[in-house]
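cron nightly-structures :: item 1 of 1
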Amino acid sequence: MGEAISRALRIGQGSGPAERRWYGHHLLKKPFFGRFMKPWRWPAGVPQEGWERVQVASRSTSRLEAIVARTPLAAHGVVVCAHPMGLACKGFWLRHGHAQKLLDAGFHVVAFDFNGFGESPSTNFDFPGDVLSVGQWARSAFPGLPVHALTASFGAINTLSAIAEADFPFDKVVAEGCPPTLPDFWKAYPLAHAVLTVGRRINPESELHLRPVHHLASMRDVDVLLIHSQADRWTPVHFGDALQQAASRPERIQRLVLEHADHTHGMRDEPQRYWSAVFEFFNQITPTRS
Protein backbone atom coordinates (compact mmCIF):
# COMPACT_ATOMS: atom_id res chain seq x y z
CA MET A 1 0.00 0.00 0.00
CA GLY A 2 2.81 2.42 0.93
CA GLU A 3 4.57 1.85 -2.39
CA ALA A 4 1.33 2.40 -4.28
CA ILE A 5 0.74 5.69 -2.47
CA SER A 6 4.32 6.78 -3.15
CA ARG A 7 3.88 6.05 -6.84
CA ALA A 8 0.59 7.93 -6.91
CA LEU A 9 2.15 10.97 -5.21
CA ARG A 10 5.40 10.62 -7.20
CA ILE A 11 7.37 10.64 -3.94
CA GLY A 12 10.91 9.50 -4.64
CA GLN A 13 10.34 9.55 -8.38
CA GLY A 14 11.88 12.01 -10.76
CA SER A 15 12.34 15.47 -9.30
CA GLY A 16 9.75 15.03 -6.54
CA PRO A 17 10.80 14.83 -2.87
CA ALA A 18 12.85 11.72 -2.12
CA GLU A 19 11.12 11.29 1.23
CA ARG A 20 8.38 13.11 3.11
CA ARG A 21 10.97 14.84 5.33
CA TRP A 22 12.27 16.71 2.28
CA TYR A 23 8.91 18.15 1.28
CA GLY A 24 9.67 21.53 2.90
CA HIS A 25 12.97 21.83 1.05
CA HIS A 26 11.17 20.84 -2.14
CA LEU A 27 8.71 23.72 -1.70
CA LEU A 28 11.53 26.19 -1.01
CA LYS A 29 13.09 25.23 -4.34
CA LYS A 30 9.95 26.14 -6.27
CA PRO A 31 10.55 29.93 -6.57
CA PHE A 32 13.98 29.20 -8.03
CA PHE A 33 13.61 26.01 -10.02
CA GLY A 34 9.88 25.17 -10.10
CA ARG A 35 9.46 25.65 -13.83
CA PHE A 36 12.31 23.22 -14.49
CA MET A 37 11.26 20.48 -12.05
CA LYS A 38 9.31 18.47 -14.60
CA PRO A 39 9.35 14.85 -15.84
CA TRP A 40 12.50 14.20 -17.87
CA ARG A 41 12.64 12.79 -21.37
CA TRP A 42 15.58 11.60 -23.39
CA PRO A 43 16.38 14.32 -25.97
CA ALA A 44 14.65 13.75 -29.28
CA GLY A 45 16.91 12.65 -32.09
CA VAL A 46 19.76 11.56 -29.81
CA PRO A 47 20.49 7.79 -29.91
CA GLN A 48 20.45 6.01 -26.55
CA GLU A 49 22.80 3.30 -27.78
CA GLY A 50 26.12 3.34 -25.97
CA TRP A 51 24.79 5.02 -22.83
CA GLU A 52 24.59 3.21 -19.51
CA ARG A 53 22.30 4.35 -16.71
CA VAL A 54 23.73 4.45 -13.20
CA GLN A 55 22.65 5.75 -9.80
CA VAL A 56 25.07 7.62 -7.57
CA ALA A 57 24.57 7.95 -3.82
CA SER A 58 25.05 11.63 -3.03
CA ARG A 59 26.12 13.53 0.04
CA SER A 60 22.77 15.31 -0.33
CA THR A 61 21.19 11.91 0.54
CA SER A 62 19.59 11.71 -2.91
CA ARG A 63 20.31 8.90 -5.34
CA LEU A 64 21.31 10.81 -8.43
CA GLU A 65 20.42 9.55 -11.87
CA ALA A 66 23.36 9.60 -14.24
CA ILE A 67 24.27 8.33 -17.70
CA VAL A 68 27.71 7.14 -18.74
CA ALA A 69 29.29 6.61 -22.16
CA ARG A 70 32.76 5.30 -22.92
CA THR A 71 34.89 6.63 -25.72
CA PRO A 72 35.93 4.03 -28.32
CA LEU A 73 39.36 5.67 -28.47
CA ALA A 74 42.30 5.41 -26.10
CA ALA A 75 40.92 7.44 -23.21
CA HIS A 76 42.54 10.74 -22.24
CA GLY A 77 40.30 11.12 -19.20
CA VAL A 78 36.77 11.35 -17.86
CA VAL A 79 34.54 14.42 -18.05
CA VAL A 80 31.67 14.88 -15.58
CA CYS A 81 29.04 17.24 -16.97
CA ALA A 82 27.16 19.43 -14.46
CA HIS A 83 24.09 20.93 -16.13
CA PRO A 84 22.66 24.45 -16.13
CA MET A 85 19.08 25.14 -15.05
CA GLY A 86 16.55 24.03 -17.63
CA LEU A 87 14.17 21.22 -18.48
CA ALA A 88 16.92 19.36 -20.36
CA CYS A 89 18.98 18.77 -17.18
CA LYS A 90 21.59 16.09 -18.02
CA GLY A 91 20.13 16.02 -21.55
CA PHE A 92 21.59 19.48 -22.16
CA TRP A 93 24.94 17.85 -22.93
CA LEU A 94 23.34 15.35 -25.30
CA ARG A 95 21.01 17.74 -27.14
CA HIS A 96 23.65 20.37 -27.85
CA GLY A 97 26.38 17.91 -28.81
CA HIS A 98 28.89 18.39 -26.00
CA ALA A 99 28.82 14.71 -25.03
CA GLN A 100 29.47 13.41 -28.54
CA LYS A 101 32.25 15.91 -29.09
CA LEU A 102 33.95 14.74 -25.89
CA LEU A 103 33.56 11.07 -26.83
CA ASP A 104 35.02 11.74 -30.28
CA ALA A 105 38.00 13.45 -28.64
CA GLY A 106 38.81 10.48 -26.40
CA PHE A 107 37.01 11.27 -23.15
CA HIS A 108 34.55 9.11 -21.24
CA VAL A 109 31.45 11.12 -20.33
CA VAL A 110 29.32 11.14 -17.18
CA ALA A 111 26.22 13.38 -17.14
CA PHE A 112 23.90 13.57 -14.14
CA ASP A 113 20.82 15.32 -12.76
CA PHE A 114 21.21 17.41 -9.63
CA ASN A 115 18.82 16.44 -6.84
CA GLY A 116 15.38 17.87 -7.60
CA PHE A 117 16.09 18.04 -11.36
CA GLY A 118 15.36 15.58 -14.13
CA GLU A 119 15.16 12.07 -12.72
CA SER A 120 16.98 12.68 -9.42
CA PRO A 121 14.75 12.80 -6.33
CA SER A 122 14.71 16.11 -4.47
CA THR A 123 16.34 16.36 -1.04
CA ASN A 124 18.15 19.45 0.23
CA PHE A 125 20.22 22.33 -1.15
CA ASP A 126 23.55 20.50 -0.98
CA PHE A 127 24.11 20.77 -4.71
CA PRO A 128 27.89 20.99 -4.25
CA GLY A 129 27.63 17.62 -2.52
CA ASP A 130 25.96 16.23 -5.63
CA VAL A 131 28.89 17.33 -7.81
CA LEU A 132 31.44 15.94 -5.36
CA SER A 133 29.67 12.60 -5.15
CA VAL A 134 29.46 12.12 -8.92
CA GLY A 135 33.08 13.15 -9.36
CA GLN A 136 34.17 10.68 -6.70
CA TRP A 137 32.08 7.96 -8.35
CA ALA A 138 33.76 8.71 -11.69
CA ARG A 139 37.21 8.53 -10.12
CA SER A 140 36.46 5.10 -8.66
CA ALA A 141 34.79 3.85 -11.87
CA PHE A 142 37.72 4.92 -14.06
CA PRO A 143 40.84 4.49 -11.89
CA GLY A 144 44.07 5.97 -13.17
CA LEU A 145 42.43 8.52 -15.48
CA PRO A 146 42.21 12.27 -14.95
CA VAL A 147 38.70 13.37 -14.00
CA HIS A 148 37.54 16.78 -15.20
CA ALA A 149 34.32 18.76 -14.92
CA LEU A 150 32.47 20.56 -17.72
CA THR A 151 29.94 22.88 -16.12
CA ALA A 152 27.56 25.68 -17.04
CA SER A 153 25.72 28.31 -14.97
CA PHE A 154 23.90 26.41 -12.16
CA GLY A 155 26.32 23.50 -12.54
CA ALA A 156 29.29 25.88 -12.48
CA ILE A 157 28.03 27.63 -9.32
CA ASN A 158 27.79 24.34 -7.48
CA THR A 159 31.09 22.95 -8.73
CA LEU A 160 33.06 26.06 -7.77
CA SER A 161 31.21 26.06 -4.44
CA ALA A 162 32.85 22.70 -3.74
CA ILE A 163 36.36 23.63 -4.86
CA ALA A 164 37.68 24.14 -1.32
CA GLU A 165 36.60 20.67 -0.15
CA ALA A 166 39.41 18.33 0.89
CA ASP A 167 37.94 15.54 -1.25
CA PHE A 168 37.35 17.66 -4.38
CA PRO A 169 37.72 15.02 -7.09
CA PHE A 170 38.41 17.04 -10.25
CA ASP A 171 41.75 17.76 -11.88
CA LYS A 172 40.37 20.51 -14.11
CA VAL A 173 37.12 22.48 -14.17
CA VAL A 174 35.54 24.35 -17.08
CA ALA A 175 33.01 26.83 -15.66
CA GLU A 176 30.87 28.62 -18.24
CA GLY A 177 28.53 31.48 -17.37
CA CYS A 178 29.17 31.46 -13.61
CA PRO A 179 28.23 34.39 -11.33
CA PRO A 180 30.29 35.28 -8.25
CA THR A 181 27.29 34.92 -5.89
CA LEU A 182 23.67 33.80 -6.03
CA PRO A 183 22.25 37.33 -5.59
CA ASP A 184 24.28 38.45 -8.62
CA PHE A 185 22.32 35.99 -10.75
CA TRP A 186 18.89 36.01 -9.11
CA LYS A 187 18.52 39.81 -8.95
CA ALA A 188 16.85 39.56 -12.38
CA TYR A 189 14.07 37.42 -10.85
CA PRO A 190 12.18 39.46 -8.17
CA LEU A 191 10.37 36.60 -6.41
CA ALA A 192 13.39 34.31 -6.25
CA HIS A 193 15.61 37.20 -5.17
CA ALA A 194 13.17 38.12 -2.37
CA VAL A 195 13.10 34.53 -1.10
CA LEU A 196 16.90 34.42 -1.25
CA THR A 197 17.19 37.70 0.67
CA VAL A 198 14.89 36.47 3.44
CA GLY A 199 16.78 33.17 3.59
CA ARG A 200 20.12 34.96 3.93
CA ARG A 201 18.83 36.94 6.89
CA ILE A 202 17.45 33.87 8.64
CA ASN A 203 20.37 31.57 7.85
CA PRO A 204 23.39 33.37 6.30
CA GLU A 205 25.35 30.10 6.08
CA SER A 206 22.89 28.68 3.57
CA GLU A 207 23.81 31.26 0.93
CA LEU A 208 27.48 31.18 1.85
CA HIS A 209 27.47 27.44 1.12
CA LEU A 210 26.56 28.27 -2.50
CA ARG A 211 28.80 31.32 -3.02
CA PRO A 212 31.62 30.59 -5.52
CA VAL A 213 33.83 33.55 -4.52
CA HIS A 214 33.81 32.39 -0.90
CA HIS A 215 35.11 28.94 -1.80
CA LEU A 216 37.58 30.11 -4.45
CA ALA A 217 39.32 32.04 -1.68
CA SER A 218 40.53 28.70 -0.31
CA MET A 219 40.48 26.61 -3.51
CA ARG A 220 42.29 23.31 -3.87
CA ASP A 221 45.20 22.80 -6.27
CA VAL A 222 42.94 22.67 -9.35
CA ASP A 223 43.04 24.30 -12.78
CA VAL A 224 39.95 26.32 -13.72
CA LEU A 225 38.91 27.71 -17.10
CA LEU A 226 36.31 30.47 -16.75
CA ILE A 227 34.20 31.12 -19.84
CA HIS A 228 32.11 34.26 -20.19
CA SER A 229 30.72 36.14 -23.16
CA GLN A 230 30.32 39.79 -24.04
CA ALA A 231 26.84 38.94 -25.33
CA ASP A 232 25.69 37.24 -22.11
CA ARG A 233 23.35 39.55 -20.19
CA TRP A 234 22.87 37.08 -17.31
CA THR A 235 26.52 36.49 -16.40
CA PRO A 236 28.58 39.31 -17.96
CA VAL A 237 32.34 39.28 -18.36
CA HIS A 238 32.97 41.27 -15.17
CA PHE A 239 31.55 38.32 -13.21
CA GLY A 240 34.58 36.38 -14.39
CA ASP A 241 36.83 39.19 -13.18
CA ALA A 242 35.30 38.89 -9.69
CA LEU A 243 35.76 35.12 -9.66
CA GLN A 244 39.40 35.38 -10.74
CA GLN A 245 40.16 38.08 -8.19
CA ALA A 246 38.67 35.93 -5.41
CA ALA A 247 40.85 32.92 -6.20
CA SER A 248 43.57 32.06 -3.68
CA ARG A 249 45.52 30.49 -6.55
CA PRO A 250 45.12 33.02 -9.40
CA GLU A 251 47.84 31.28 -11.39
CA ARG A 252 45.48 28.28 -11.73
CA ILE A 253 42.71 30.40 -13.30
CA GLN A 254 42.48 30.71 -17.08
CA ARG A 255 39.97 32.81 -19.02
CA LEU A 256 38.07 32.58 -22.29
CA VAL A 257 36.00 35.62 -23.27
CA LEU A 258 33.64 34.96 -26.16
CA GLU A 259 32.06 37.69 -28.26
CA HIS A 260 28.68 36.51 -29.52
CA ALA A 261 27.64 33.53 -27.39
CA ASP A 262 24.40 33.54 -25.42
CA HIS A 263 24.30 32.36 -21.82
CA THR A 264 25.57 28.72 -21.55
CA HIS A 265 25.79 28.43 -25.33
CA GLY A 266 29.46 28.91 -26.09
CA MET A 267 29.55 25.64 -28.02
CA ARG A 268 26.47 26.46 -30.09
CA ASP A 269 27.33 30.06 -30.90
CA GLU A 270 31.14 30.03 -31.14
CA PRO A 271 32.07 26.33 -31.44
CA GLN A 272 35.56 26.74 -32.85
CA ARG A 273 36.80 29.09 -30.12
CA TYR A 274 34.94 27.15 -27.41
CA TRP A 275 36.28 23.69 -28.24
CA SER A 276 39.78 24.90 -29.09
CA ALA A 277 40.06 26.39 -25.60
CA VAL A 278 38.36 23.49 -23.79
CA PHE A 279 40.42 20.73 -25.40
CA GLU A 280 43.68 22.65 -25.04
CA PHE A 281 42.82 23.10 -21.37
CA PHE A 282 41.87 19.47 -20.76
CA ASN A 283 44.95 18.19 -22.58
CA GLN A 284 47.47 20.32 -20.70
CA ILE A 285 49.74 18.06 -18.70
CA THR A 286 49.04 17.94 -14.97
CA PRO A 287 49.85 15.21 -12.42
CA THR A 288 47.22 12.44 -12.30
CA ARG A 289 45.82 11.84 -8.85
CA SER A 290 46.18 8.41 -7.31
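cron nightly-structures :: done
DSSP finds 13 helices and eight strands in the chain.
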